[in-house]
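Quick one, probably user error.
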Protein backbone atom coordinates (compact mmCIF):
# COMPACT_ATOMS: atom_id res chain seq x y z
CA UNK A 1 0.00 0.00 0.00
CA UNK A 2 2.70 2.44 1.06
CA UNK A 3 6.20 2.19 -0.38
CA UNK A 4 9.01 4.37 0.96
CA UNK A 5 12.14 4.37 -1.19
CA UNK A 6 15.52 5.86 -0.40
CA UNK A 7 13.96 8.72 1.56
CA UNK A 8 16.20 11.49 2.86
CA UNK A 9 15.07 14.64 4.64
CA UNK A 10 16.64 17.64 6.28
CA UNK A 11 15.72 20.72 8.27
CA UNK A 12 17.38 23.93 7.15
CA UNK A 13 20.86 23.46 5.76
CA UNK A 14 22.55 21.49 8.45
CA UNK A 15 20.17 19.01 10.14
CA UNK A 16 19.99 15.74 8.24
CA UNK A 17 17.03 13.90 9.82
CA UNK A 18 16.52 10.91 7.47
CA UNK A 19 19.05 9.22 5.21
CA UNK A 20 18.14 6.64 2.56
CA UNK A 21 15.18 5.08 4.39
CA UNK A 22 13.25 2.37 2.49
CA UNK A 23 10.46 0.04 3.61
CA UNK A 24 6.94 -1.05 2.65
CA UNK A 25 3.69 -1.02 4.56
CA UNK A 26 1.42 -3.82 3.27
CA UNK A 27 -2.36 -3.35 2.91
CA UNK A 28 -4.30 -3.40 6.19
CA UNK A 29 -1.19 -3.99 8.29
CA UNK A 30 0.28 -2.33 11.38
CA UNK A 31 3.91 -1.31 10.98
CA UNK A 32 5.73 -0.02 14.07
CA UNK A 33 8.51 2.56 13.81
CA UNK A 34 10.87 2.34 16.77
CA UNK A 35 13.88 4.42 17.67
CA UNK A 36 15.21 6.72 20.35
CA UNK A 37 14.78 10.48 20.65
CA UNK A 38 15.85 12.30 17.52
CA UNK A 39 16.02 9.12 15.39
CA UNK A 40 13.76 10.68 12.74
CA UNK A 41 10.44 9.00 13.55
CA UNK A 42 8.32 12.17 13.53
CA UNK A 43 10.16 13.38 10.44
CA UNK A 44 9.14 10.18 8.65
CA UNK A 45 5.46 10.73 9.53
CA UNK A 46 5.64 14.38 8.47
CA UNK A 47 7.18 13.32 5.15
CA UNK A 48 4.27 10.93 4.51
CA UNK A 49 1.55 13.42 5.54
CA UNK A 50 3.16 16.19 3.46
CA UNK A 51 3.65 18.41 6.50
CA UNK A 52 7.46 18.48 6.56
CA UNK A 53 7.50 21.97 5.01
CA UNK A 54 5.32 23.29 7.84
CA UNK A 55 8.16 22.37 10.22
CA UNK A 56 10.91 23.92 8.11
CA UNK A 57 11.97 20.59 6.62
CA UNK A 58 12.22 19.18 3.11
CA UNK A 59 12.82 15.92 1.28
CA UNK A 60 16.18 15.78 -0.44
CA UNK A 61 15.91 12.38 -2.13
CA UNK A 62 13.69 9.37 -2.62
CA UNK A 63 9.96 8.98 -3.02
CA UNK A 64 6.79 7.83 -1.29
CA UNK A 65 4.14 5.87 -3.18
CA UNK A 66 0.58 5.11 -2.14
CA UNK A 67 -0.90 2.32 -4.26
CA UNK A 68 1.81 2.90 -6.88
CA UNK A 69 1.23 6.67 -7.13
CA UNK A 70 3.73 9.19 -5.85
CA UNK A 71 2.44 11.34 -2.99
CA UNK A 72 5.69 13.01 -1.92
CA UNK A 73 5.01 16.13 -3.98
CA UNK A 74 1.42 16.57 -2.85
CA UNK A 75 0.28 19.14 -0.31
CA UNK A 76 -1.19 17.98 3.04
CA UNK A 77 -4.81 18.50 1.91
CA UNK A 78 -4.31 16.29 -1.15
CA UNK A 79 -2.83 13.57 1.06
CA UNK A 80 -5.81 13.78 3.47
CA UNK A 81 -8.02 13.52 0.37
CA UNK A 82 -6.28 10.18 -0.34
CA UNK A 83 -7.43 9.03 3.12
CA UNK A 84 -4.06 9.22 4.87
CA UNK A 85 -4.53 10.85 8.29
CA UNK A 86 -1.90 11.81 10.83
CA UNK A 87 -2.42 12.09 14.59
CA UNK A 88 0.53 14.25 15.64
CA UNK A 89 2.47 13.80 18.84
CA UNK A 90 1.02 15.56 21.89
CA UNK A 91 -2.73 15.03 21.32
CA UNK A 92 -3.37 18.29 19.55
CA UNK A 93 -7.12 18.54 20.03
CA UNK A 94 -8.89 21.88 19.61
CA UNK A 95 -8.85 22.63 23.33
CA UNK A 96 -11.50 25.34 23.43
CA UNK A 97 -13.92 23.47 21.24
CA UNK A 98 -16.30 20.77 22.46
CA UNK A 99 -15.76 17.08 21.78
CA UNK A 100 -18.61 17.21 19.23
CA UNK A 101 -17.02 20.19 17.43
CA UNK A 102 -13.66 18.42 17.31
CA UNK A 103 -15.29 15.40 15.70
CA UNK A 104 -17.18 17.59 13.27
CA UNK A 105 -13.92 19.26 12.25
CA UNK A 106 -12.41 15.81 11.61
CA UNK A 107 -15.35 14.98 9.35
CA UNK A 108 -14.92 18.00 7.07
CA UNK A 109 -12.80 15.96 4.67
CA UNK A 110 -15.49 13.25 4.52
CA UNK A 111 -18.34 13.31 2.02
CA UNK A 112 -21.37 14.88 3.78
CA UNK A 113 -23.46 11.76 3.22
CA UNK A 114 -20.93 9.59 5.06
CA UNK A 115 -20.34 11.77 8.12
CA UNK A 116 -23.12 10.34 10.29
CA UNK A 117 -21.85 6.78 9.77
CA UNK A 118 -18.28 7.87 10.51
CA UNK A 119 -19.43 9.58 13.72
CA UNK A 120 -21.37 6.49 14.82
CA UNK A 121 -18.31 4.29 14.21
CA UNK A 122 -16.07 6.65 16.20
CA UNK A 123 -18.52 6.73 19.14
CA UNK A 124 -18.72 2.93 19.06
CA UNK A 125 -14.94 2.81 19.20
CA UNK A 126 -14.76 5.41 21.98
CA UNK A 127 -17.96 5.26 24.07
CA UNK A 128 -16.41 7.71 26.55
CA UNK A 129 -16.49 10.45 23.89
CA UNK A 130 -20.21 9.86 23.41
CA UNK A 131 -20.75 10.60 27.11
CA UNK A 132 -18.81 13.86 26.83
CA UNK A 133 -19.92 15.37 23.54
CA UNK A 134 -20.62 18.81 25.05
CA UNK A 135 -17.48 18.94 27.17
CA UNK A 136 -14.65 21.32 26.32
CA UNK A 137 -11.93 19.15 24.80
CA UNK A 138 -9.14 20.85 26.74
CA UNK A 139 -10.71 19.69 30.00
CA UNK A 140 -10.62 15.98 29.12
CA UNK A 141 -7.98 13.76 30.76
CA UNK A 142 -4.79 13.06 28.81
CA UNK A 143 -6.02 9.62 27.77
CA UNK A 144 -9.41 10.97 26.70
CA UNK A 145 -7.72 13.69 24.64
CA UNK A 146 -5.63 11.04 22.92
CA UNK A 147 -8.83 9.13 22.15
CA UNK A 148 -10.41 12.30 20.79
CA UNK A 149 -7.35 13.00 18.63
CA UNK A 150 -7.58 9.48 17.17
CA UNK A 151 -11.38 9.71 16.91
CA UNK A 152 -11.14 13.01 15.06
CA UNK A 153 -8.76 11.44 12.53
CA UNK A 154 -11.09 8.42 12.18
CA UNK A 155 -13.93 10.80 11.18
CA UNK A 156 -12.12 11.04 7.83
CA UNK A 157 -12.45 7.24 7.42
CA UNK A 158 -8.72 6.84 6.72
CA UNK A 159 -7.19 3.95 4.83
CA UNK A 160 -3.90 4.70 6.54
CA UNK A 161 -3.56 6.18 10.02
CA UNK A 162 -0.23 7.72 11.04
CA UNK A 163 0.08 7.70 14.84
CA UNK A 164 2.91 9.61 16.54
CA UNK A 165 3.58 8.27 20.04
CA UNK A 166 -0.03 7.69 21.14
CA UNK A 167 1.10 6.21 24.49
CA UNK A 168 3.28 9.18 25.47
CA UNK A 169 2.64 10.36 29.01
CA UNK A 170 -0.29 8.01 29.66
CA UNK A 171 -0.83 5.68 32.62
CA UNK A 172 -0.30 1.93 31.96
CA UNK A 173 -4.03 1.16 32.00
CA UNK A 174 -4.71 3.87 29.44
CA UNK A 175 -1.81 2.66 27.27
CA UNK A 176 -3.42 -0.78 27.27
CA UNK A 177 -6.75 0.74 26.22
CA UNK A 178 -5.11 2.74 23.40
CA UNK A 179 -3.42 -0.50 22.25
CA UNK A 180 -6.81 -2.26 22.12
CA UNK A 181 -8.27 0.62 20.13
CA UNK A 182 -5.42 0.53 17.60
CA UNK A 183 -5.95 -3.21 17.13
CA UNK A 184 -9.68 -2.65 16.67
CA UNK A 185 -9.14 0.15 14.14
CA UNK A 186 -6.82 -2.14 12.21
CA UNK A 187 -9.33 -5.00 12.48
CA UNK A 188 -11.85 -2.75 10.71
CA UNK A 189 -9.48 -2.44 7.74
CA UNK A 190 -7.37 0.67 8.40
CA UNK A 191 -3.60 0.28 8.00
CA UNK A 192 -1.54 1.89 10.78
CA UNK A 193 1.97 3.31 10.86
CA UNK A 194 2.68 3.45 14.59
CA UNK A 195 5.58 5.53 15.88
CA UNK A 196 6.31 4.52 19.46
CA UNK A 197 9.00 4.74 22.08
CA UNK A 198 7.04 2.11 23.99
CA UNK A 199 8.63 -0.75 22.05
CA UNK A 200 6.91 -3.49 24.04
CA UNK A 201 3.45 -2.16 23.22
CA UNK A 202 4.29 -1.45 19.58
CA UNK A 203 5.86 -4.86 18.86
CA UNK A 204 2.91 -6.63 20.44
CA UNK A 205 0.45 -4.81 18.17
CA UNK A 206 2.40 -4.61 14.93
CA UNK A 207 2.78 -7.12 12.12
CA UNK A 208 6.08 -5.60 11.00
CA UNK A 209 8.52 -3.14 12.50
CA UNK A 210 11.35 -0.89 11.45
CA UNK A 211 14.00 0.59 13.72
CA UNK A 212 15.48 4.01 12.96
CA UNK A 213 18.84 5.01 14.38
CA UNK A 214 19.99 8.60 13.87
CA UNK A 215 18.05 8.94 10.63
CA UNK A 216 18.94 5.57 9.13
CA UNK A 217 17.07 2.29 8.94
CA UNK A 218 18.89 -0.03 11.36
CA UNK A 219 16.52 -3.04 11.37
CA UNK A 220 13.34 -4.11 9.61
CA UNK A 221 11.24 -7.25 9.66
CA UNK A 222 8.45 -9.27 11.16
CA UNK A 223 7.47 -7.72 14.54
CA UNK A 224 7.44 -11.03 16.43
CA UNK A 225 10.84 -11.97 15.01
CA UNK A 226 12.29 -8.57 15.89
CA UNK A 227 10.85 -8.79 19.40
CA UNK A 228 12.66 -12.11 19.83
CA UNK A 229 15.96 -10.87 18.39
CA UNK A 230 18.83 -10.29 20.74
CA UNK A 231 19.56 -6.76 19.50
CA UNK A 232 15.99 -5.58 19.97
CA UNK A 233 15.72 -7.34 23.34
CA UNK A 234 18.88 -5.66 24.50
CA UNK A 235 18.26 -2.19 23.09
CA UNK A 236 14.50 -1.80 23.16
CA UNK A 237 12.89 -4.35 25.44
CA UNK A 238 15.05 -4.08 28.51
CA UNK A 239 16.89 -7.41 28.28
CA UNK A 240 20.34 -7.03 29.85
CA UNK A 241 19.60 -3.36 30.40
CA UNK A 242 22.52 -3.07 32.75
CA UNK A 243 24.83 -5.34 30.74
CA UNK A 244 28.47 -4.49 31.30
CA UNK A 245 29.13 -4.43 27.58
CA UNK A 246 26.61 -1.63 26.98
CA UNK A 247 28.37 1.73 26.78
CA UNK A 248 26.96 4.46 29.07
CA UNK A 249 25.65 6.38 26.07
CA UNK A 250 23.84 3.28 24.85
CA UNK A 251 22.31 2.62 28.27
CA UNK A 252 21.11 6.24 28.29
CA UNK A 253 19.50 5.66 24.90
CA UNK A 254 17.92 2.37 25.97
CA UNK A 255 16.36 3.97 28.99
CA UNK A 256 14.93 6.81 26.91
CA UNK A 257 13.62 4.32 24.40
CA UNK A 258 11.86 2.40 27.10
CA UNK A 259 10.39 5.59 28.48
CA UNK A 260 12.07 5.14 31.86
CA UNK A 261 14.62 7.88 31.43
CA UNK A 262 14.58 10.52 34.11
CA UNK A 263 17.06 13.35 33.71
N1 LIG B 1 11.35 21.47 13.11
C1 LIG B 1 12.63 21.09 13.20
N2 LIG B 1 13.64 21.93 12.88
C2 LIG B 1 14.94 21.54 12.96
N3 LIG B 1 15.35 20.31 13.33
C3 LIG B 1 14.39 19.42 13.65
C4 LIG B 1 12.98 19.76 13.61
N4 LIG B 1 12.26 18.67 13.99
C5 LIG B 1 13.17 17.70 14.26
N5 LIG B 1 14.43 18.13 14.05
C6 LIG B 1 15.69 17.36 14.20
O1 LIG B 1 15.61 16.26 13.29
C7 LIG B 1 16.11 15.08 13.89
C8 LIG B 1 15.02 14.01 13.90
O2 LIG B 1 13.96 14.46 14.75
P1 LIG B 1 12.55 13.73 14.90
O3 LIG B 1 11.67 14.63 15.70
O4 LIG B 1 12.09 13.27 13.58
O5 LIG B 1 12.96 12.46 15.76
P2 LIG B 1 12.05 11.47 16.61
O6 LIG B 1 12.60 10.13 16.38
O7 LIG B 1 10.61 11.70 16.28
O8 LIG B 1 12.37 11.94 18.08
P3 LIG B 1 11.38 12.17 19.33
O9 LIG B 1 11.05 10.85 19.84
O10 LIG B 1 12.23 12.97 20.26
O11 LIG B 1 10.17 12.94 18.81
C9 LIG B 1 16.59 15.48 15.27
O12 LIG B 1 17.97 15.77 15.18
C10 LIG B 1 15.81 16.73 15.57
O13 LIG B 1 16.51 17.58 16.45
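Nope, works fine. Designed sequence:
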Amino acid sequence: MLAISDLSARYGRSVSALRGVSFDLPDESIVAVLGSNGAGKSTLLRAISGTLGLHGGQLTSGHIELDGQRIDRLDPAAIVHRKVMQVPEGRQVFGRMSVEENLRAGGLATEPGKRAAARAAVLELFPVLGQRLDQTAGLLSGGEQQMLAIGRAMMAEPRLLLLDEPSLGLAPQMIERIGEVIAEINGRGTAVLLVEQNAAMALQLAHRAVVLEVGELALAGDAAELAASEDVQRLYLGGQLEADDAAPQERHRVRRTLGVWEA
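The longest strand covers residues 15-25.
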